[in-house]
Design a protein that fits this description.
Shape: elongated
Structural class: mainly alpha
CATH class of the largest domain: Mainly Alpha
Number of domains: 2
Order of helices and strands: EEHHHHHHHEEHH
Strand content: 5-15%
CATH topology of the largest domain: Arc Repressor Mutant, subunit A
Helix content: 55-70%
Radius of gyration: 23 Å
Number of helices: 9
Number of strands: 4
Keywords: DNA-binding, Transcription, Transcription regulation
Protein name: MarR family winged helix-turn-helix transcriptional regulator
Pfam family, one: MarR_2
Organism: Streptomyces hokutonensis
CATH superfamily of the largest domain: Winged helix-like DNA-binding domain superfamily/Winged helix DNA-binding domain
InterPro entries: ArsR-like_HTH, HTH_MarR-typ, WH-like_DNA-bd_sf, WH_DNA-bd_sf
Largest sheet: 2 strands, antiparallel
Strand order of the largest sheet: 1-2
């Protein structure tokens, strides 16, 4: 992208704003990150803003996707982190210790402890002490918790399918592959991030 009179252009002399305002269906569509990148290029034309175009879009997509995906969870009175805990117990199919749940959900120990307390109070999980070590607890889904996960998951996947419907199947596969490659690199370089 170049600039004309301090305004970013698409390389053909046209402003991104002009393309965004063009109502014709063949006009290229510009997202909010493109506008931000254009502004930075106008201020610092010497800087390579390529990384911003990727990371900025990933961050923006993450926020928007979470807002959309969490609708079925909100209706069930669950937060995304709580559902992740329940999901970890369901997909592994056996009891897990809080430390194992911490690793499975990329969360801190304190956050897992707080969420487990809330889920226990709701009757969705139960804890039992280890017969050999009183400091260790084992967590499992109750029947109610298992039924809730099994009821929500199809609705959650349907929601995600709808959200991604704008991308064709090959596009979704390509995006999944690229994001997988990026994730492997980041996990190797940065380690597993805890939240």
């Amino acid at each position: 992208m170049t600039s004309v009179n301090g305004r970013p252009t698409d390389g053909n002399g046209a402003s991104p704003d002009a393309a965004r305002d063009d109502p014709s269906p063949s006009a290229p569509r510009h997202d909010t990150v493109a506008a931000v990148v254009g502004q930075w290029q106008a201020v610092h034309p010497d800087l390579d803003t390529g990384p911003m175009e990727i990371i900025g879009r990933i961050n923006r997509c993450a926020v928007l996707l979470q807002q959309a995906e969490d609708a079925p969870l909100r209706r069930a009175g669950l937060s995304r982190p709580e559902f992740d805990l329940l999901g970890a117990l369901r997909r592994t199919g056996h009891e897990l210790t809080p430390s194992e749940l911490t690793r499975e959900t990329f969360s801190s120990g304190a956050a897992v402890t707080k969420r487990l307390k809330q889920l226990t109070e709701r009757g969705l999980v139960e804890r039992r002490g280890d017969t050999r070590d009183r400091r260790v607890a084992h967590v499992r889904l109750t029947d109610t918790g298992r039924e809730l996960v099994d009821a929500i998951l199809p609705e959650q996947l349907a929601y995600e399918t709808t959200v991604l419907a704008g991308l064709d199947t090959p596009g979704q596969g390509e995006l999944a592959t690229l994001l997988g490659e990026l994730l492997v690199q980041l996990e190797g370089r940065l380690g597993v991030l805890r939240v």
